[in-house]
Amino acid sequence: MAGHGYVRTDASVERWNRMREDVYKHFRFTSKASWISLTGLLFIPAGMVWFSAQQDLKWSFSGKRKGESLYRIAPPAAEPTED
């Protein structure tokens, strides 16, 4: 059974941890940070809402059998051609 003592501290790990904990104190809204914030807070959620609105009421899984279309309003069947 190894490890009967305290964990040895590494100065570089402690320095990295301190930097990670204090990053909010040195944060500034630069143009890069602004674009990242807008992307994460506006563009991605807006894209998800748009995609959801496009797919809403398009599909119906209830009571469908194998081979039936999952569209709520099924596309017209192809008419046979006369040869």
From TrEMBL:
Transmembrane segments: 33-53
Superkingdom in the source lineage: Eukaryota
Keyword Membrane: yes
Keyword Transmembrane attached: yes
UniProt KW keywords: Membrane, Transmembrane, Transmembrane helix
Name this polypeptide is given: Complex I-B15
Natural source organism: Heterobasidion irregulare (strain TC 32-1)
Lineage: Eukaryota, Fungi, Dikarya, Basidiomycota, Agaricomycotina
